[in-house]
What does this fold into?
Amino acid sequence: MKGIVWHGPEEMSVEEVPEPEVEPGTVIVRPTAAGICGSEIEGYLGRMGNRTPPLVMGHEFAGTVTEVGEGADEDLLGRLVAVNPLSSDGTCRLCLAGLTNLCPNRRLVGIHSPGGFAEYTLAPAANIYPLPDGVEARTGALAEPLANG
It folds into this structure.
């Protein structure tokens, strides 16, 4: 499959990348719309140290669920969804206080693992939000930045 791969400051290319394999508790999403956030630009320029090349970026995206892993809701299959890219450990004091966005062990799709700038990507099933009927993928791709206020 094709992906846009960041290789370091100001170095990106479209190339063949491995297809993700579904795992328990995850889904495979085929992105149909993705945003380019200021953090992608900063990452591309090498100004954010939280990315390790080579990396398929893209943490603001929406698409169709094409495969569900064991334990994931099978009703998600074929649904147009938005993806919350942030996963927390769920066990630290911040997570237990409901501040999962501040978890010191948080991981983000498109920053710590391959993201939405590819034909398919892997995401935690718990982070998948089906879009209501009539909501387009390009609107769903804006769910993450809108949620940040």
Q: What stands out?
A: Residues 38-44 form the longest helix (7 residues).
